[in-house]
Amino acid sequence: MTLPGRQERQPRWAGLAWALWVLTLLGLAATAWLDALLRQAGQPALAWLGAGNAASAGAAVVAATVGALVASRRPRHPVGWLLVAMGLSVSLSAAGSSYKWYGLGAQPGSLPAASYLAGLSNGLNIVYVACGGFVLLLTPTGTLPSRRWRWWARVAAAAAGMFLLASALTSLPAYPEYPGVVSPIGVPALDEPPLGAVIPLAGGVVLVALVVAAGSLVGRFRRARGVERQQLRWLAWGAALAALALVAAIAELALHGDTPLFQAALGLCLALLPVATGAAILRYRLYDLDRIISRTLAWGLLTLLLGLGYAGVVLGLGRLLPEGSSLVVAAATLAVAAAFTPARHRIQQAVDRRFNRRRYDAARTIAAFSDRLRQQVDLNTLTGELLAVVEETMQPTRALLWLRPQALSNASTATARGR
What's the pTM value of the predicted model, to 2 decimals? Predict the structure, then answer.
Protein backbone atom coordinates (compact mmCIF):
# COMPACT_ATOMS: atom_id res chain seq x y z
CA MET A 1 0.00 0.00 0.00
CA THR A 2 1.37 3.41 -0.97
CA LEU A 3 0.83 6.32 1.37
CA PRO A 4 -0.79 9.43 -0.16
CA GLY A 5 1.72 12.02 -1.30
CA ARG A 6 4.56 9.51 -1.48
CA GLN A 7 5.79 8.03 -4.71
CA GLU A 8 6.33 4.30 -4.77
CA ARG A 9 9.89 3.33 -5.47
CA GLN A 10 10.34 0.91 -8.36
CA PRO A 11 13.36 -1.38 -7.91
CA ARG A 12 13.87 -1.88 -11.65
CA TRP A 13 14.25 1.86 -12.25
CA ALA A 14 16.55 2.21 -9.26
CA GLY A 15 18.66 -0.65 -10.58
CA LEU A 16 18.87 1.00 -14.01
CA ALA A 17 19.89 4.34 -12.51
CA TRP A 18 22.70 2.82 -10.45
CA ALA A 19 23.78 0.63 -13.37
CA LEU A 20 24.28 3.77 -15.45
CA TRP A 21 26.19 5.28 -12.54
CA VAL A 22 28.50 2.27 -12.50
CA LEU A 23 28.92 2.60 -16.27
CA THR A 24 29.98 6.23 -15.77
CA LEU A 25 32.68 5.19 -13.32
CA LEU A 26 33.83 2.38 -15.60
CA GLY A 27 34.13 4.83 -18.49
CA LEU A 28 36.34 7.14 -16.45
CA ALA A 29 38.42 4.18 -15.29
CA ALA A 30 38.87 3.09 -18.91
CA THR A 31 39.90 6.64 -19.76
CA ALA A 32 42.60 6.60 -17.09
CA TRP A 33 43.88 3.25 -18.38
CA LEU A 34 43.98 4.45 -22.01
CA ASP A 35 45.70 7.66 -20.93
CA ALA A 36 48.39 5.59 -19.25
CA LEU A 37 48.88 3.72 -22.55
CA LEU A 38 49.16 7.02 -24.39
CA ARG A 39 51.87 8.21 -22.02
CA GLN A 40 53.75 4.94 -22.42
CA ALA A 41 53.56 5.39 -26.19
CA GLY A 42 55.14 8.83 -25.91
CA GLN A 43 51.93 10.83 -26.55
CA PRO A 44 51.07 12.45 -23.17
CA ALA A 45 49.55 15.49 -24.90
CA LEU A 46 46.76 13.28 -26.29
CA ALA A 47 45.70 12.00 -22.85
CA TRP A 48 42.23 13.23 -21.93
CA LEU A 49 42.85 13.55 -18.19
CA GLY A 50 46.13 15.26 -18.84
CA ALA A 51 44.56 17.96 -20.98
CA GLY A 52 42.93 19.87 -18.13
CA ASN A 53 39.80 17.74 -17.90
CA ALA A 54 40.16 16.51 -14.33
CA ALA A 55 37.49 19.01 -13.22
CA SER A 56 35.10 17.69 -15.87
CA ALA A 57 35.69 14.13 -14.65
CA GLY A 58 34.84 15.13 -11.09
CA ALA A 59 31.73 16.98 -12.25
CA ALA A 60 30.66 13.90 -14.22
CA VAL A 61 30.86 11.75 -11.09
CA VAL A 62 28.87 14.30 -9.09
CA ALA A 63 26.20 14.66 -11.78
CA ALA A 64 25.84 10.89 -12.22
CA THR A 65 25.68 10.31 -8.46
CA VAL A 66 23.06 12.98 -7.82
CA GLY A 67 21.13 11.86 -10.88
CA ALA A 68 21.13 8.21 -9.82
CA LEU A 69 19.94 9.22 -6.35
CA VAL A 70 17.10 11.32 -7.75
CA ALA A 71 16.14 8.77 -10.41
CA SER A 72 16.08 5.89 -7.92
CA ARG A 73 13.83 7.81 -5.52
CA ARG A 74 11.68 9.63 -8.07
CA PRO A 75 11.90 7.62 -11.31
CA ARG A 76 9.17 9.63 -13.05
CA HIS A 77 11.05 12.87 -12.63
CA PRO A 78 13.03 13.52 -15.85
CA VAL A 79 15.73 15.68 -14.23
CA GLY A 80 17.28 12.70 -12.44
CA TRP A 81 17.77 10.88 -15.74
CA LEU A 82 19.10 14.05 -17.35
CA LEU A 83 21.74 14.35 -14.63
CA VAL A 84 22.71 10.71 -15.17
CA ALA A 85 22.97 11.41 -18.90
CA MET A 86 25.22 14.41 -18.19
CA GLY A 87 27.68 12.33 -16.19
CA LEU A 88 27.53 9.40 -18.60
CA SER A 89 28.07 11.62 -21.66
CA VAL A 90 31.28 13.05 -20.20
CA SER A 91 32.50 9.58 -19.28
CA LEU A 92 31.77 8.09 -22.72
CA SER A 93 33.21 11.12 -24.50
CA ALA A 94 36.41 10.88 -22.46
CA ALA A 95 36.78 7.14 -23.04
CA GLY A 96 36.03 7.57 -26.74
CA SER A 97 38.55 10.38 -27.06
CA SER A 98 41.38 8.40 -25.44
CA TYR A 99 40.38 5.30 -27.42
CA LYS A 100 40.41 7.31 -30.63
CA TRP A 101 43.80 8.94 -30.08
CA TYR A 102 45.48 5.72 -29.04
CA GLY A 103 43.97 3.64 -31.86
CA LEU A 104 44.52 6.28 -34.56
CA GLY A 105 47.50 8.33 -33.42
CA ALA A 106 49.73 6.55 -30.89
CA GLN A 107 49.37 2.98 -32.19
CA PRO A 108 47.45 3.05 -35.50
CA GLY A 109 45.40 -0.07 -36.05
CA SER A 110 45.92 -1.44 -32.54
CA LEU A 111 42.30 -0.88 -31.41
CA PRO A 112 39.27 -2.03 -33.41
CA ALA A 113 36.65 0.46 -34.61
CA ALA A 114 38.67 3.47 -33.43
CA SER A 115 37.86 5.36 -36.61
CA TYR A 116 34.14 4.63 -36.17
CA LEU A 117 34.11 6.15 -32.70
CA ALA A 118 36.15 9.21 -33.61
CA GLY A 119 33.32 11.45 -34.77
CA LEU A 120 30.85 10.13 -32.22
CA SER A 121 33.16 10.93 -29.31
CA ASN A 122 33.45 14.50 -30.60
CA GLY A 123 29.68 14.89 -30.77
CA LEU A 124 29.07 13.59 -27.25
CA ASN A 125 30.54 16.80 -25.87
CA ILE A 126 27.30 18.63 -26.69
CA VAL A 127 25.17 16.22 -24.65
CA TYR A 128 26.39 17.61 -21.31
CA VAL A 129 25.45 21.16 -22.29
CA ALA A 130 22.11 20.15 -23.80
CA CYS A 131 21.12 18.12 -20.75
CA GLY A 132 22.17 21.01 -18.51
CA GLY A 133 19.79 23.30 -20.38
CA PHE A 134 16.91 20.85 -19.96
CA VAL A 135 17.74 20.44 -16.27
CA LEU A 136 17.31 24.19 -15.78
CA LEU A 137 14.16 24.18 -17.92
CA LEU A 138 12.45 21.33 -16.03
CA THR A 139 13.59 21.97 -12.45
CA PRO A 140 12.00 21.61 -9.94
CA THR A 141 8.61 20.26 -11.05
CA GLY A 142 9.81 18.07 -13.94
CA THR A 143 7.55 19.93 -16.40
CA LEU A 144 8.06 22.92 -18.67
CA PRO A 145 7.21 26.36 -17.27
CA SER A 146 4.20 26.49 -19.61
CA ARG A 147 2.90 24.98 -22.84
CA ARG A 148 4.42 27.84 -24.82
CA TRP A 149 7.86 26.37 -24.10
CA ARG A 150 7.18 23.15 -25.99
CA TRP A 151 8.35 24.44 -29.37
CA TRP A 152 11.58 25.78 -27.88
CA ALA A 153 12.27 22.48 -26.11
CA ARG A 154 11.84 20.66 -29.42
CA VAL A 155 14.20 23.08 -31.16
CA ALA A 156 16.85 22.60 -28.46
CA ALA A 157 16.54 18.80 -28.58
CA ALA A 158 16.67 18.80 -32.39
CA ALA A 159 19.78 21.02 -32.35
CA ALA A 160 21.59 18.64 -30.00
CA GLY A 161 20.59 15.66 -32.16
CA MET A 162 21.76 17.39 -35.35
CA PHE A 163 25.10 18.26 -33.75
CA LEU A 164 25.63 14.66 -32.68
CA LEU A 165 24.61 13.26 -36.08
CA ALA A 166 26.72 15.74 -38.02
CA SER A 167 29.76 14.96 -35.86
CA ALA A 168 29.35 11.25 -36.55
CA LEU A 169 28.95 11.75 -40.32
CA THR A 170 31.93 14.03 -40.85
CA SER A 171 34.64 12.37 -42.91
CA LEU A 172 37.58 13.94 -41.01
CA PRO A 173 36.89 13.30 -37.31
CA ALA A 174 40.53 13.76 -36.21
CA TYR A 175 41.22 16.93 -38.18
CA PRO A 176 43.46 18.97 -37.84
CA GLU A 177 45.71 16.80 -35.64
CA TYR A 178 45.54 13.87 -38.08
CA PRO A 179 44.17 15.08 -41.43
CA GLY A 180 44.82 11.71 -43.00
CA VAL A 181 42.36 9.88 -40.71
CA VAL A 182 39.06 9.29 -42.52
CA SER A 183 35.91 7.95 -40.88
CA PRO A 184 34.43 4.82 -42.56
CA ILE A 185 30.93 6.12 -41.97
CA GLY A 186 31.73 9.70 -42.98
CA VAL A 187 30.20 11.31 -46.05
CA PRO A 188 32.81 13.53 -47.77
CA ALA A 189 30.19 15.14 -49.99
CA LEU A 190 28.45 16.55 -46.92
CA ASP A 191 31.52 18.07 -45.28
CA GLU A 192 31.21 21.39 -47.08
CA PRO A 193 29.00 23.22 -46.70
CA PRO A 194 26.16 21.21 -45.03
CA LEU A 195 28.01 19.67 -42.09
CA GLY A 196 30.43 22.55 -41.84
CA ALA A 197 27.48 24.87 -41.29
CA VAL A 198 25.25 22.53 -39.26
CA ILE A 199 27.77 21.80 -36.52
CA PRO A 200 28.47 25.42 -35.45
CA LEU A 201 24.84 26.43 -35.95
CA ALA A 202 23.47 23.56 -33.88
CA GLY A 203 26.11 24.13 -31.20
CA GLY A 204 25.14 27.81 -31.02
CA VAL A 205 21.46 26.93 -30.61
CA VAL A 206 22.30 24.56 -27.73
CA LEU A 207 24.33 27.26 -25.99
CA VAL A 208 21.51 29.79 -26.46
CA ALA A 209 19.07 27.21 -25.08
CA LEU A 210 21.19 26.92 -21.95
CA VAL A 211 21.02 30.69 -21.39
CA VAL A 212 17.30 30.83 -22.15
CA ALA A 213 16.63 27.97 -19.73
CA ALA A 214 18.47 29.83 -16.99
CA GLY A 215 16.35 32.90 -17.75
CA SER A 216 13.16 30.84 -17.52
CA LEU A 217 13.86 30.27 -13.84
CA VAL A 218 13.23 33.97 -13.17
CA GLY A 219 9.68 33.78 -14.49
CA ARG A 220 9.08 30.47 -12.77
CA PHE A 221 10.29 31.92 -9.47
CA ARG A 222 7.88 34.86 -9.73
CA ARG A 223 4.91 32.54 -10.21
CA ALA A 224 6.02 29.90 -7.70
CA ARG A 225 4.61 29.59 -4.21
CA GLY A 226 5.32 27.42 -1.18
CA VAL A 227 7.60 24.44 -1.66
CA GLU A 228 8.35 25.16 -5.33
CA ARG A 229 9.60 28.63 -4.42
CA GLN A 230 11.92 27.15 -1.82
CA GLN A 231 13.17 24.61 -4.35
CA LEU A 232 14.02 27.37 -6.80
CA ARG A 233 15.89 29.21 -4.07
CA TRP A 234 18.12 26.15 -3.66
CA LEU A 235 18.79 26.21 -7.39
CA ALA A 236 19.47 29.95 -7.39
CA TRP A 237 21.89 29.58 -4.47
CA GLY A 238 23.79 26.85 -6.29
CA ALA A 239 23.86 28.87 -9.53
CA ALA A 240 25.21 31.93 -7.70
CA LEU A 241 28.02 29.92 -6.09
CA ALA A 242 28.77 28.26 -9.44
CA ALA A 243 29.06 31.69 -11.07
CA LEU A 244 31.51 32.83 -8.37
CA ALA A 245 33.56 29.67 -8.84
CA LEU A 246 33.58 30.23 -12.61
CA VAL A 247 34.83 33.79 -12.17
CA ALA A 248 37.59 32.53 -9.87
CA ALA A 249 38.53 29.83 -12.39
CA ILE A 250 38.71 32.32 -15.27
CA ALA A 251 40.81 34.73 -13.20
CA GLU A 252 43.22 31.96 -12.18
CA LEU A 253 43.50 30.75 -15.78
CA ALA A 254 44.23 34.26 -17.02
CA LEU A 255 46.84 34.96 -14.33
CA HIS A 256 48.62 31.64 -13.84
CA GLY A 257 47.32 29.23 -16.50
CA ASP A 258 46.09 25.68 -15.93
CA THR A 259 46.93 25.26 -12.24
CA PRO A 260 45.44 22.99 -9.53
CA LEU A 261 43.52 26.00 -8.21
CA PHE A 262 41.96 26.52 -11.64
CA GLN A 263 40.98 22.85 -11.80
CA ALA A 264 39.45 22.98 -8.31
CA ALA A 265 37.45 26.14 -9.07
CA LEU A 266 36.23 24.78 -12.40
CA GLY A 267 35.27 21.45 -10.83
CA LEU A 268 33.35 23.28 -8.09
CA CYS A 269 31.54 25.33 -10.72
CA LEU A 270 30.50 22.27 -12.72
CA ALA A 271 29.48 20.24 -9.66
CA LEU A 272 27.44 22.82 -7.75
CA LEU A 273 24.47 22.93 -10.11
CA PRO A 274 23.78 19.15 -10.03
CA VAL A 275 24.07 19.16 -6.23
CA ALA A 276 21.69 22.11 -5.86
CA THR A 277 19.27 20.55 -8.32
CA GLY A 278 19.23 17.24 -6.46
CA ALA A 279 18.69 18.98 -3.13
CA ALA A 280 15.79 20.97 -4.59
CA ILE A 281 14.03 17.99 -6.15
CA LEU A 282 14.44 15.70 -3.15
CA ARG A 283 13.40 18.58 -0.86
CA TYR A 284 16.18 17.78 1.57
CA ARG A 285 15.97 20.19 4.54
CA LEU A 286 14.43 22.74 2.23
CA TYR A 287 13.57 25.37 4.76
CA ASP A 288 17.08 25.37 6.22
CA LEU A 289 18.43 27.26 3.21
CA ASP A 290 17.97 30.63 4.92
CA ARG A 291 19.77 29.26 7.94
CA ILE A 292 22.67 27.98 5.81
CA ILE A 293 23.04 31.38 4.14
CA SER A 294 22.85 33.34 7.38
CA ARG A 295 25.23 31.03 9.23
CA THR A 296 27.75 31.15 6.37
CA LEU A 297 27.68 34.93 6.27
CA ALA A 298 27.77 35.25 10.05
CA TRP A 299 30.75 32.95 10.53
CA GLY A 300 32.56 34.57 7.60
CA LEU A 301 32.10 38.05 9.07
CA LEU A 302 33.00 36.80 12.53
CA THR A 303 36.23 35.25 11.27
CA LEU A 304 37.13 38.42 9.40
CA LEU A 305 36.44 40.75 12.33
CA LEU A 306 38.19 38.58 14.90
CA GLY A 307 41.17 38.16 12.59
CA LEU A 308 41.43 41.91 12.14
CA GLY A 309 41.03 42.41 15.89
CA TYR A 310 43.74 39.87 16.64
CA ALA A 311 46.10 41.52 14.17
CA GLY A 312 45.30 44.94 15.63
CA VAL A 313 46.02 43.84 19.20
CA VAL A 314 49.26 42.15 18.16
CA LEU A 315 50.46 45.20 16.25
CA GLY A 316 49.37 47.62 18.95
CA LEU A 317 50.94 45.79 21.87
CA GLY A 318 53.99 44.92 19.78
CA ARG A 319 55.01 48.56 19.82
CA LEU A 320 54.58 48.91 23.56
CA LEU A 321 56.12 45.63 24.75
CA PRO A 322 59.58 44.25 23.99
CA GLU A 323 59.99 42.41 20.69
CA GLY A 324 59.30 38.67 20.92
CA SER A 325 57.33 38.98 24.18
CA SER A 326 54.83 36.19 24.73
CA LEU A 327 52.46 38.65 26.40
CA VAL A 328 51.49 40.01 22.99
CA VAL A 329 50.16 36.67 21.74
CA ALA A 330 48.55 35.88 25.11
CA ALA A 331 46.78 39.24 25.29
CA ALA A 332 45.55 39.00 21.70
CA THR A 333 44.25 35.46 22.28
CA LEU A 334 42.43 36.48 25.47
CA ALA A 335 40.92 39.52 23.74
CA VAL A 336 39.63 37.41 20.85
CA ALA A 337 38.27 34.75 23.23
CA ALA A 338 36.46 37.38 25.29
CA ALA A 339 34.91 39.02 22.23
CA PHE A 340 33.95 35.77 20.50
CA THR A 341 30.55 35.04 22.09
CA PRO A 342 29.10 38.58 22.19
CA ALA A 343 30.40 39.29 18.68
CA ARG A 344 28.87 36.07 17.34
CA HIS A 345 25.46 36.88 18.84
CA ARG A 346 25.44 40.43 17.52
CA ILE A 347 26.62 39.46 14.05
CA GLN A 348 24.13 36.57 13.85
CA GLN A 349 21.27 38.85 14.83
CA ALA A 350 22.31 41.46 12.25
CA VAL A 351 22.59 38.83 9.51
CA ASP A 352 19.29 37.15 10.46
CA ARG A 353 17.56 40.53 10.39
CA ARG A 354 18.62 40.93 6.77
CA PHE A 355 18.95 37.43 5.26
CA ASN A 356 16.90 35.14 7.53
CA ARG A 357 13.96 37.33 8.42
CA ARG A 358 11.69 34.39 9.18
CA ARG A 359 13.95 33.12 11.95
CA TYR A 360 14.42 36.64 13.32
CA ASP A 361 10.67 37.32 13.37
CA ALA A 362 9.95 33.89 14.87
CA ALA A 363 12.44 34.51 17.67
CA ARG A 364 10.83 37.87 18.45
CA THR A 365 7.35 36.34 18.42
CA ILE A 366 8.37 33.56 20.82
CA ALA A 367 10.09 36.04 23.13
CA ALA A 368 6.97 38.23 23.23
CA PHE A 369 4.77 35.20 23.92
CA SER A 370 7.08 34.14 26.76
CA ASP A 371 6.63 37.55 28.39
CA ARG A 372 2.84 37.32 28.11
CA LEU A 373 2.90 33.76 29.42
CA ARG A 374 4.25 34.91 32.77
CA GLN A 375 1.30 37.23 33.27
CA GLN A 376 -1.55 35.25 31.68
CA VAL A 377 -3.51 32.69 33.75
CA ASP A 378 -6.64 32.19 31.64
CA LEU A 379 -6.33 28.82 29.90
CA ASN A 380 -8.65 29.68 26.98
CA THR A 381 -6.68 32.80 26.20
CA LEU A 382 -3.40 30.91 26.41
CA THR A 383 -4.74 28.23 24.07
CA GLY A 384 -5.61 30.76 21.41
CA GLU A 385 -2.32 32.60 21.76
CA LEU A 386 -0.32 29.36 21.66
CA LEU A 387 -1.99 28.22 18.45
CA ALA A 388 -1.44 31.66 16.93
CA VAL A 389 2.26 31.59 17.79
CA VAL A 390 2.69 28.07 16.38
CA GLU A 391 0.93 29.07 13.16
CA GLU A 392 3.01 32.23 12.80
CA THR A 393 6.42 30.70 13.55
CA MET A 394 6.13 27.15 12.21
CA GLN A 395 3.48 27.78 9.49
CA PRO A 396 1.96 24.28 9.60
CA THR A 397 -0.89 23.28 7.32
CA ARG A 398 -2.97 22.40 10.37
CA ALA A 399 -2.57 22.90 14.12
CA LEU A 400 -4.57 21.31 16.95
CA LEU A 401 -4.15 21.50 20.72
CA TRP A 402 -5.49 18.70 22.91
CA LEU A 403 -5.83 19.11 26.70
CA ARG A 404 -6.64 16.34 29.11
CA PRO A 405 -9.92 16.88 30.98
CA GLN A 406 -8.14 16.37 34.32
CA ALA A 407 -5.59 19.00 33.47
CA LEU A 408 -8.40 21.31 32.38
CA SER A 409 -10.32 20.84 35.64
CA ASN A 410 -7.16 21.32 37.72
CA ALA A 411 -6.38 24.49 35.83
CA SER A 412 -9.94 25.76 36.36
CA THR A 413 -9.74 24.99 40.08
CA ALA A 414 -6.42 26.76 40.37
CA THR A 415 -7.87 29.76 38.56
CA ALA A 416 -10.88 29.84 40.93
CA ARG A 417 -8.62 29.65 43.99
CA GLY A 418 -6.49 32.42 42.64
CA ARG A 419 -9.54 34.62 42.43
Answer: 0.68
